[in-house]
Amino acid sequence: MRFAFYGRVSTEDQQDPQASKAWQLSRARSLIEPAGGEVVAEFFDVGQSRSLPWKRRPEALRLLDTIKSAGRDFDAVVIGEPQRAFYGSQFGMTFPIFVHYGVGLWVPEIGGAIDPGSDAHDLVMALYGGMSKGERNRIKVRVRSAMRAQTELEGRFLGGRPPYGYRLADAGPHPNPGKAAEGRRLHRLEPDPVTAPVVARIFNEYVAGRGMTSIARGLTQDGIACPSAYDRARNPHRHTQVWETTAIRAILQNPRYTGRQVWNRARTDEVLIDVDDVALGHENRHRWNDPSQWAWSRAESHTPLITTDLYERAQLTVKTRGAIGEGGKAPRRSRHAYLFRGLLRCGLCERVMEGSVNHGRIYYRCKASRDYVSQHGIAHPPVLYLRQESITEPVDRFLSEELGNANLTETLRRIAEAGHRAALAQHQQQDEAPKLRETIDDCDAKIARYRATLDAGGDPALVAGWISETAAIKKAAQARLGFTEAPPERMSEEQIAAIVKALGGLLGLLRRADQHDRAEIYARIGLQMQYRPGTGTVLAEIRSTEVDRVPVLCPEGDLNPHAR
């Protein structure tokens, strides 16, 4: 009797594919050879997860196609281990194909061929499918538990590319004796002297009020290489030569710059490809976890590039900048330019009017059900509509009058004063130069004492070790001192005058701006509107007390695409 062999091994099994195939094939042969069977064809999937259905495994799919072929050269299929072949309910969805084409299926756990009419055989195969699923889940739980413990207790670097601003350094042999014998070693993060100051600059500028796009443009203009250009070997999949906003955002949201190792920031979910066809199986979706689920090392595992306080303030800024109200959301990018998304409320029910498109025109509407109207006791039609283009020009003129050239100079002067005071206080709070100079002086004093000990007859080898260690500390402090920034300077009157002149009127700026950037300008300056359908009017006002949200009107800011 002629047989086709099927087996599978994946990366999650942590086995050598050749060795795994050998023992699975040996087990299959020991089952069929006493019955006079021989293997005439082999189908073996390598690197394929057991959770994938047969139609999505290359070799399993080839086997199914061969089974359907009239020219197949085997009569049955033998499997070395059913737990590797079938996962969950896969047997129940695959075996009927074998039965339909008259191909037998042999497994060691049955002791021979599976009987299509045997409930016991179905139960055994279903059991092994469940065991396969349980084994995979146990592997996932063990791996994740180990990674969490290694992060929290050891602060171990768990692999992957180092974040921009760091480079990998050797941290000794692997603690697992087997892996250590193979030459495997641990790694840790250490600051990259070239890029570490750039990370600190990005955080400081962002917290001070500069936007991500503006920061990216400034780094490019200063000739600072972006991550993909700085290390081509580390980023072979990227080809950009300029800083992108996405790179700035990724840096700002990375907590490892605080010196602590962080794991479980993201997860991989398995979701059904087609809810109407479960047999297609699942696909992986990468999603971000809530910060409450992150695993932090209990102590610093590498040299921090920023303080924890600076990181937390940056996260708060990311959440609130451009937000509407205390718990609102920043304006979303969409295919349609909704200039007043989240800024326009209904005067009857005080709810935010939502944007919609009708015959190519943008409208804002407020829908109210009969139950809602009855519950709140208001006179509200089922749907209210307000066309965007009917209020755009009046709103721009209102803003031009409120924030135009006549008031802009004084507004910018007040902003400059307040911003300079805040930046100076932040710099003084974070300035580590005095502490670094104190460390350098202390090292000089220690080295002098060590040399005196040497002159007095101390052990040369021991004293040389002291001097070498202290000199290394001094050198590190001197290098970090060189990265400290000068105190921030206040915006000069000449700069203020240049900004006012460059604006050429806020009305002109709004008309020239990209529609999505224009929408962000409205949100950031605190524009709030209320539509009063009874009188057919819109009440507009500016509600903004946040100093750091106003400078985006500057032509050198992150919202003006015409700035150079």
Structural Rg: 33 Å
How many helices? The count is 19
Report the span from N to C terminus. Answer: 79 Å
Helix content: 40-55%
Strand content: 15-25%
E-strand count: 17
Largest sheet: 5 strands, mixed
Shape: flat
Strand order of the largest sheet: 2-1-3-4-5
Mean pLDDT: 78
Indicate the low-confidence ranges by residue numbers: 322-333, 545-564
Structural class: alpha/beta
Can you describe what's shown?
The protein is α/β, with parallel strands linked by helices. 45% of the residues lie in helices and 16% in strands. The protein has helices at residues 17-32, 58-68, 82-85, 90-100, 119-154, 177-181, 196-207, 212-221, 227-230, 245-252, 308-320, 370-376, 389-403, 405-430, 433-455, 460-483, 493-503, 506-512, 515-524, and strands at 2-9, 38-46, 76-79, 104-107, 112-113, 166-173, 185-191, 262-263, 266-272, 282-288, 295-296, 344-346, 354-358, 361-367, 383-387, 527-532, 537-542. Strands 2-1-3-4-5 form a five-stranded mixed β-sheet, with helices on both faces. A three-stranded mixed β-sheet has the order 12-16-17. The protein has a three-stranded antiparallel β-sheet with strand order 13-14-15. Helix 7 (196-207) crosses helix 11 (308-320) and helix 15 (433-455) runs antiparallel to helix 16 (460-483). It is flat and about 95 Å long.
